[in-house]
Design brief:
With 241 residues, the protein is an alpha/beta fold. It is 42% helix and 10% strand.
């Protein structure tokens, strides 16, 4: 049996222990360095981070600040959203001198008036945007179609809240369909998809479905409302004139 060459005080170095006939084999088996454990990464972790700078379903990161954003704004966009919203913003700027205009005309299905449409309306107004909303702007006994025509004429931008209820109304050629036809005739239209998809929208309205917009699948209703309010804000335009 092999004897340790340093039985009393132990080996002075790792190489000495490795060359010891008694300790060498035991040292070689137990001397592998321990490696630090690294955190596991989910393949989906790129969809969100601590700053809220999330990626859209198209894979584009929201990292671009819009030309119309105020200096203190923290709202970020994808490059596709910038391309989509820039023509609308240009029209807003052209109409900034017109008096007594609402910022946004909200087109929605009747069934959404107390739910998604009201939520979006309230969020927009809390962000400082003035909104034409049938629930508050059409008086009892008034002609709905006539009031809608007035609302469209006196708004800078039209948004269409596209929901399953809205798609049903358009199929049935109801009021929502008439509003949509009027909005499609202008370049001041932003579709907002909520609980539905562009594929479902294109089946009902290929023309509206061909337009890019914003979706609550990719962002919360709060974030969508903040972008719309920033889109129609004209304070910085008026100051610069």
């Amino acid at each position: 049996m092999s004897r340790c060459t340093a039985p009393v005080h132990g080996h002075r170095s790792a190489s000495a222990a490795a060359n010891c006939p008694a300790c060498g084999s035991r040292y070689r088996y137990n001397s592998y360095p321990s490696y630090p454990s690294y955190p596991s990464y989910s393949p989906y972790s790129s969809y969100s981070n601590s700053s809220g700078n999330r990626s859209s379903s198209t894979g584009q990161t929201r990292s671009v600040k819009a030309r119309w954003s105020s200096s203190g704004s923290g709202i970020l966009y994808t490059s596709e959203e910038i391309r989509t919203l820039t023509p609308v913003r240009e029209n807003v700027e052209k109409r900034s001198d017109l008096p007594d205009l609402r910022d946004i005309f909200l087109c929605h299905a009747w069934d959404d008036r107390k739910d998604a449409a009201k939520e979006l309306h309230d969020l927009l107004e809390s962000n400082g945007a003035s909104v034409w909303f049938s629930e508050k702007d059409v008086l009892l006994g008034s002609s709905l179609l006539r009031e809608i025509d007035k609302g469209l004429a006196k708004s800078r931008v039209g948004i269409v809240l596209v929901t399953p209820s809205f798609l049903k109304r358009v199929k049935a050629e109801g009021i929502a369909d008439k509003e949509l036809s009027a909005l499609l005739a202008r370049d001041l239209l932003v579709p907002i998809l909520h609980n539905t998809t562009y594929e479902e929208l294109r089946e009902v309205s290929p023309l509206l479905g061909s337009r890019s917009g914003l979706s609550t699948v990719e962002e919360s209703m709060t974030e969508v409302a903040a972008k719309l309010a920033e889109l129609v804000a004209i304070e910085n335009i008026l100051v610069s004139k």
